[in-house]
Amino acid sequence: METIKHVFQVDRREINYLRVIIESYDGMAVVRTIDPHAALIELQVSPGCEDLIFELVNSLRKNEDIRMVEVFL
Fold it and tell me: Given a cut of 80, is residue 7 above it in pLDDT?
């Protein structure tokens, strides 16, 4: 099964927090750090879970004021 990949630039201090929160939704997505210095992370989203993961991302942005800017490489 192929995952859908999205890359985000975030605040470096938030990488671990984002990993814990996103991966706590068991089997929906995995967070991979691409470049810790540039604070680039990749979300590998399971097919069919895109809507739920993006609801979570939008909630983190809005309610917790976490900066997550999607980067297109």
Answer: yes
